[in-house]
Amino acid sequence: MNTTGKIALFVGGALFGSAGLKILGSRDARKVYTGVTAAALRCKDQVMRDVEVVQESCSDILADARAINEAKALEAEAEYIEDGAKA
């Protein structure tokens, strides 16, 4: 690429960048940013509610599993005591 082409690309990029900054800083763009941010916050709140439900379910499952293990341990202990009494 020749020097003139490089200079033209540079100038075009600078103009495009300046126009882009003006567009991104406009009031309409700020309204869009605000709307997107508000939607993201609503989404985050919903995800946090869903995570809380999953955590509660996991806690219930863990409690049930511990209760089952305790019952099995008591059963095994009772069988061990019966086997010892028979001997």
Structure description:
The chain has one domain (3-86). It is elongated and about 105 Å long. The mean pLDDT is 87. Helix content is 94%, strand content 0%. The chain has helices at residues 3-24, 27-86. 0% of the residues are buried.
Write the layout of secondary structure elements.
Elements: H1 3-24, H2 27-86
Search tags:
single chain; 87 residues; mainly alpha; 94% helix
- Give the low-pLDDT segments: none
Outline, from the CA principal axes?
elongated
| Domain count | 1
Q: Report mean pLDDT, rounded to a whole number.
A: 87
Specify the helix fraction band: over 70%
Radius of gyration: 34 Å
Q: What order do the SSEs take from the amino end to the carboxyl end, as H and E? A: HH
Strand content: under 5%
Structural class: mainly alpha
Strand tally: 0
Q: What is the number of helices?
A: 2
Indicate the multimeric state. single chain
Distance, first to last CA: 99 Å
Major β-sheet profile: none
Offer a concise description of the structure.
This protein has helices spanning about 5-25, 25-85. The protein has about 90 residues and is an all-alpha fold.
